[in-house]
Amino acid sequence: MHKAHWRKTALAHRRDLTPQHVQAQSQALAEHLIQYFTANPVSSLHIFLPIRKHNEIDTFLIWEQLRQRFPAMRFAASVSDFQTFAMRNYWLENNTNLVENAWGIPEPVGATLAHDADFEAVLVPLLAFDEKGFRVGYGKGFYDRFLAKCRPDVRKIGLSLTPPVPAIADAAEHDIKLDLCVCPDQIYYFQD
């Protein structure tokens, strides 16, 4: 099946989720990430902040638990430019002001700029992913552009509420594969 099919299917599935289900699944993801970063530490992590109206994973919960467990880890999030489909990244501190943009995405305001090469790992949003590590997002290419500018060894970590689909038939060369994807039930690892 193609990206459009998986995108439509995933969005329909998300609409049917209850907030309680999303919270429970987000907690399971947080526990897997704590285990992963305990074994594979990083000093800097880029996270995405959730669009709550789309039942996205509660990365606020994940961020809080990672901050408590790894107090030396630095976190950053992005501000999206919907004219150029690029992201500018900013460090998140305890007092960083977050404001929702017109699309419901919380964004840091007045924070310190972070550079794409600063991150050792990136939590990547997705709607679906396949058994090879390709992902389907909302279709604007924000994360493919961003990840292409990150350091070559950045760990690309997908977060998903559902297991992989068999294959994304129209995955393209410019699509950047995940290194792993964390799901509520397990972590999926991908190799080139």
TrEMBL record:
Binding site for ATP: K3, A4, H5, W6, R7, R135, V136, G137, Y138, G139, K140, G141, F142, Y143
Sorted UniProt keywords: ATP-binding, Ligase, Magnesium, Metal-binding, Nucleotide-binding
Signal peptide per UniProt: none
Any single biological process term in GO: tetrahydrofolate interconversion
Pfam families, per the entry: 5-FTHF_cyc-lig
Designated name of the protein: 5-formyltetrahydrofolate cyclo-ligase
Organism from which the protein derives: Flexibacter flexilis DSM 6793
Top-level taxon in the UniProt lineage: Bacteria
Lineage of source species: Bacteria, Pseudomonadati, Bacteroidota, Cytophagia, Cytophagales
One term of GO molecular function: 5-formyltetrahydrofolate cyclo-ligase activity
Cofactor(s) required, per the database record: Mg(2+)
Positions that bind substrate: L49, E56
Record-listed E.C. numbers: 6.3.3.2
NCBIfam families, alphabetized: MTHFS_bact
Similarity section: Belongs to the 5-formyltetrahydrofolate cyclo-ligase family.
InterPro entries according to UniProt: FTHF_cligase, FTHF_cligase-like_sf, NagB/RpiA_transferase-like
Reactions catalysed: (6S)-5-formyl-5,6,7,8-tetrahydrofolate + ATP = (6R)-5,10-methenyltetrahydrofolate + ADP + phosphate
